[in-house]
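Hi support team,

I'm filing this because I wasn't sure whether my run with GCB finished correctly. The job status page said complete, but I'd like someone to confirm that the output block is well-formed before I use it downstream. Pasting the exact inputs I used:
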Amino acid sequence: MLRGLAGTWAVVGALLWGCGLALLQGGMLYPRESRSRERKELDGLWRFRADFSQNRRQGFEQQWYRTPLRESGPSLDMPVPSSFNDVGQDGRLRSFVGWVWYEREATLPQRWTEDLGTRVVLRIGSAHYYAIVWVNGVHVAEHEGGHLPFEADISRLVQSGPLSSCRITIAINNTLSPNTLPPGTILYKTDTSKYPKGYFVQNTNFDFFNYAGLHRTVLLYTTPTAYIDDITVTTDVDQDTGLVNYQIVVQGSEHFQLEVCLLDEEGTVVAKGTGGRGQLQVPSAHLWWPYLMHEHPAYLYSLEVKLTAQTAAGFVSDFYTLPVGIRTVAVTQSQFLINGKPFYFHGVNKHEDADIRGKGFDWPLLVKDFNLLRWLGANAFRTSHYPYAEEVMQLCDRYGIVVIDESPGVGIVLAQSYSNVSLQHHLEVMEEMVRRDKNHPSVVMWSVANEPASFLKPAGYYFKTLIAHTKALDPSRPVTFVTNSNYEADLGVPYVDVICVNSYYSWYHDYGHMEVIQLQLATQFESWYKTYQKPIIQSEYGAETITGFHEDPPLMFSEEYQKGLLEQYHVVLDQKRREYVVGELIWNFADFMTDQSPQRPIGNRKGIFTRQRQPKSAAFLLRERYWKLANETKCHRSAVKSQCVGNSPFTF
Ligand code: GCB
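And here is everything the job wrote out:
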């Protein structure tokens, strides 16, 4: 696929969106304040109770949502956002499987409860895994899947009487089944000589702790009753003119007008349009470039949308501003192109993971991580192994960090997880994910899964369908999944645009023998490339390392071994990146929590930073490498040579 195709994708994309290919009802715009919209975060302390009853259903049997939680039994204070697992002193809560109950009162501004022209929406950023929501005891929403937002319009409930507050109850179940994403299984241990009656454990086939709870912000926001429900933007470039295709969905009125206005970073209007769809042309456009690829990376325009609509109560206006980066993405037989120039991913895989809060969103941690990424000279990461918080994606847009956006399709290894039920759910998850993240310029590729058993017979149909669906939802971006299967046996890779391969030479195989890495890695790359002639990303490689362990000559688990292993990989990557390898992502950015196992000394230690974000020796090695790669990109593949200034600011 050549550069021109990026344009084609963009055009077809706009058409398909126009046909309503996405099956989901409604948009999922990030709740931003504007002249017509307010937001009220409900973060802080919630009341909490885990249902320890034998069948875990006591909460439903006793209808805990009907009255304040304190009336149906004892409750704990629980911070939101946070996983519930690591904040307490009760070991049973850490490994709890089943329903937990959250509750809090929200004080409502008078206008919200009295002005019938105001729409009040409850939005839950992430509730892992299955959630049921009640407001004042009335069921308002249910959602499956722990990494994507969902909403409920609660206007009628809060406007039905003289209310100054409302009680929000959320029941969350972290049980995973072969049909959930990620999948899991519950294993009942029935040997009563070894286990008490009813004893069960949850097993998973992924390597991170199944943290649960309200992981992201819960908030209320308002819109007018006629409102901008969704915006879809795709961009293209013609000579030096930026093309911004937009499509806007309005709800709540049939009679409306839309005005759109594109502003540059100085606030100057550079293009204007009207109507629900159209194309804005930006002469001499500033393109959105990745970090370290241009002296002014991550240029963001603002698309201001104004809706004027007729409603029963008269005319109302709604305003929404969307950041827009103008850029193209395309894939050839051996290259990944951003704005028509070869892009080499040098970055990391991450996790949403930290001490105490688990997977709970945390601004200081996030800003620290982005500071570390930029210190490292990383220009990309993969959201292994689930979609991250929207604020993460916004910072990627802002800093020019390129993202491979991955679904929670991790651990698909059982035959049952290839059933139609699983596939249907996976298709829906891709719809939710594309709906949420489609407008981020930083997102350049979708990854539908990580390390599935893609050699199993049903994998061919499964991935063909899943990838085709994702491309139909968003024809403007390439699609992949991450494989660790044998190149001859993999039934899903024929459908991907870029091959993403994980390998752990001299770690899980031939451990201790770094001397075999170069041969094995070269064989890996050549086998895949000869078979498919598609660009390849080394999407994981790494070694477990306990910070402070030193052994010379290097032994496994020491900082020297991690460095040595990486260096062996780099020799081959340096050869192959001149041919068809388009990226390398270290496993992992930081140490992270996993299930307990004899192989995991309080979590996975393959981070180049500790869980507390302190560098191991390998971080300095990678830093040197990434800045060198960035300088090469700048010199040899200079996106806009004339616009690059000397060696500054890229020189290491
Ligand atoms: C992998 C997985 C990742 C694991 C990693 C490891 O291949 O994709 O989730 O954590 O290996 O450290 O074993």
